[in-house]
């Protein structure tokens, strides 16, 4: 029983909603019903969901509006289950961020399989994102996006500054000499010009302090170089 997976089912037809809940429960997930767009918004704002199933034709807020809100504010998977058979409706929903589109009437086994497939794909993508992230304290470096955030704020880094942080965060316990940093980041021989490294480290420290003035991220090891502060 996978009690950790919560699926919100937004469907105004009671019989179909009950059927979808049964499908979800038999797959080992937890189901929660919403019968209107307005009710759905309350659950979306109060709860943490692993997937949302949305009917497009709903009383109150439309399924299209809910889809836009969910995909704008989160990356949880969304499956549309709708009686709208027009190709354009499917295209619009998929372009708006839906992960799948199932038309009514539907096959129970197919819905179950699509839910499993969508959740599995999402988990794979999430684990891939995590393996491409390095963290230290509240500093997160995303190697795919080449972005560093501190305290939830994105740092505006130059390419060299990013490479210095990437190098240091990849070996958080290592003391890097100025020669280490220069030759690794600039790919040139270090001839003792310390000013270049000093300026870059000073800029990085300034940006880190601006993002979180209560933490220190880089320490100077006198006579040796720099390392991340544990």
Summarize the structure.
46% of the residues lie in helices and 20% in strands. It has 230 residues and is an alpha/beta fold.
Category from helices, strands and their pairing: alpha/beta
The number of E-state strands comes to 11
Termini gap: 40 Å
How many helix segments? 8
SSE arrangement, N to C: EHEHEHEHEHEEEEHHHEE
| Mean pLDDT rating | 91
What is the strand arrangement across the widest sheet? 2-1-3-4-5
Beta-strand residue fraction: 15-25%
Q: Shape, please?
A: elongated
Biggest sheet, open or closed, and with what strands and sense? 5 strands, parallel
Q: Give Rg in angstroms.
A: 25 Å
Q: Which runs of at least 5 residues are low in confidence (pLDDT < 50)?
A: none
Give the helix level as a range of percent.
40-55%
Domain OmpR/PhoB-type: 131-230
Domain Response regulatory: 6-119
Modified residues (4-aspartylphosphate): 55
Protein name: Response regulator transcription factor
Structure commentary:
Keywords: DNA-binding, Phosphoprotein, Transcription, Transcription regulation, Two-component regulatory system. It is a single chain. The chain is built from eight helices and eleven strands. The strands form three sheets. It has a five-stranded parallel sheet, sandwiched between helices. It has a four-stranded antiparallel sheet with strand order 6-7-8-9. A two-stranded antiparallel sheet has the order 10-11. The protein is elongated, with a radius of gyration of 25 Å. Helix 6 (159-170) crosses helix 7 and helix 6 packs across helix 8. 46% of the residues lie in helices and 20% in strands.
């Amino acid at each position: 029983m996978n009690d950790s997976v919560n699926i919100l089912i937004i469907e105004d037809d009671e019989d179909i909603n009950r059927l979808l809940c049964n499908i979800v429960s038999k797959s080992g997930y937890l189901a929660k019903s919403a019968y209107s767009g307005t009710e759905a918004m309350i659950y979306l704002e109060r709860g943490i969901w692993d997937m949302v199933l949305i009917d497009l034709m709903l009383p109150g807020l439309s399924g299209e509006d809910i889809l836009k809100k969910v995909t704008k504010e989160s990356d949880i998977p969304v499956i549309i289950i709708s009686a709208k058979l027009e190709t354009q409706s499917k295209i619009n929903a998929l372009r708006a961020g839906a992960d799948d589109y199932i038309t009514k009437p539907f096959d129970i086994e197919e819905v179950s399989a699509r839910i499993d497939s969508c959740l599995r794909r999402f988990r794979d993508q999430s684990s891939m994102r995590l393996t491409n992230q390095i963290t230290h304290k509240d500093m997160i470096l995303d190697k795919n996006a080449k972005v560093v955030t501190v305290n939830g704020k994105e740092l505006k880094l130059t390419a060299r500054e990013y490479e210095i942080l990437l190098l240091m965060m990849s070996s958080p316990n290592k003391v890097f000499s100025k020669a280490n940093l220069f030759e690794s980041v600039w790919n040139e021989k270090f001839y003792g010009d310390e000013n270049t490294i000093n300026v870059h480290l000073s800029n990085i420290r300034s940006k880190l302090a601006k993002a979180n003035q209560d933490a220190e991220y880089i320490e100077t090891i006198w006579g040796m170089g720099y390392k991340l502060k544990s």
